[in-house]
Specification:
By secondary structure, the chain is an alpha+beta fold. It has a single domain, classed as Translation Initiation Factor IF3 (2-Layer Sandwich), CATH 3.30.110. Helix content is 41%, strand content 19%. The protein has a four-stranded mixed beta sheet with strand order 1-2-4-3, with helices on both faces. 19% of the residues are buried.
């Protein structure tokens, strides 16, 4: 799934003031990290991930691992060591941003 144009700009603007919800450190891409990331993104729809200096993980490595783990997670933006990810929430009560995207 690819998000382009106005929808991408909207998601980037919403994530601009967010603090990173999860940090990838020296442990790298563990199963535990991916499970935590999935729990957070299913609840919040948009999350910001920070890659710490001591990690050997590159942003593209994380994107590839997420595509293998859950193909519904969409990479929105990467700036330096910060990444923004989006996934439509499975529960209707957690949908905030996806409702706005459907209106566009």
């Amino acid at each position: 799934m690819i998000i382009k144009g106005k929808k991408n700009r909207y998601l980037r603007s919403q994530a601009a003031t967010m603090k990173p919800a999860i940090q990838v450190g020296r442990d790298g891409l563990s199963e535990n990290l991916l499970n935590q990331l999935e729990i957070l993104i299913n609840k919040d729809e948009i999350i910001k991930v920070s890659l710490l200096q001591n990690t050997m993980v590159e942003p593209q490595d994380l994107i590839d691992a997420l595509n293998d783990f859950d193909d519904q997670i969409v990479h929105i933006q990467t700036i330096g060591s910060k990444m923004v990810l989006y996934k439509k929430a499975p529960k209707i009560k957690n949908r905030k941003y996806s409702i706005e995207l459907e209106k566009m």
